[in-house]
Design a protein that fits this description.
This protein is an alpha/beta fold. The protein is built from 13 helices and nine strands. Strand 4, helix 2 and strand 5 form a beta-alpha-beta unit.
Length: 355
Amino acid sequence: MDVIKYVALDLHIASIWIVVMSAAGKVLMELGIATSAAEIRKFFAGLRGRLTVTFEESTLSQWAYEVIEPMVEKVVVCNPRRNKYLEEGSKSDEIDAHKLADLLRTGMLKAVYHGQKGFGAMKDVVRSYLCLSSDCSRVMNRLKAVFRSRGIRTVGRSIYYERNRQEWLNKLDRPEKRRRAEILYKQFDCLRELKKEAKREMLAAARKQEGYRSVISIPGLGPIFTAIILAVIVTPHRFRSKRQLWSYCGLSVITRSSSDYEFINGRRVKSRKFEVTRGLTVDFNHLLKWALKTATIEAIKKEPFHTFYSIRTEAGMSPEMARLTVARKIAALILVLWKKGDVFDEKVIMKSFAA
């Protein structure tokens, strides 16, 4: 019978520290290797037994997953935000690897999804578009800052239009400021063209995905948000229920209570007064939450979500909670339509809203 072994890797760009632990918690092996696919394959080729491997989510994690996954029984890419145990006491590569192996052996790790093969291209084109969008916004802010530094108001977007640029440049009273603005204009033009190119590639890649037709049919989710949602979620079958997706999106409400029970005449009964704290989950995918929240603002301007939103606010629900409820509806629709391969049908949705 093959022996079960737990392997923990502390990944860094130059080196990897590896700890191999038995089911009983005994350290069987520990060593450091260079960070390369050849060295990783060489190590695992010489390791016998049923291997379960873990390492933390990072820049290197997808590459490491692709290299290691074919050679072992299971790979757990764990969420570093949940590994509070690693922050206690002394810290080094060796200590972190030991703690990771122990957490893996005892089943205490929270896995990050890495199961879908061949989806890296879609993620990369979405990242390229988002990075260029962020860079464009940064340059636009810097450009306005140049004018504000000379007491010139820059309300609106006319400052960015090519037809208005010379007029704006003439307002700057110092040549060095004018030269700086010219350079920023050139940088903005270059980034804008790259952003358009990245957008075309992203939308072309999104249209090839299996769930594109279903997700884009939902009001409020245009092609850009659809592409982001497809790239982040990858497959709807990751989530068994809508509540799991809500938690991943940061849309689920968590409740923490204390002093729930008391003893009266020797019997344990529910307390009439106990402390309850409510709030949205703090461990979520920030990009997906942003996409759904922004799409919700557009969705409540259209039917059937406008009616659904209005009913809630007229009944006394706060606008923030009403938008959260609409965002949850959209997330649930994404999950069910994508799984079934169906498209949005307003008549069916209105019946469910009425219920």
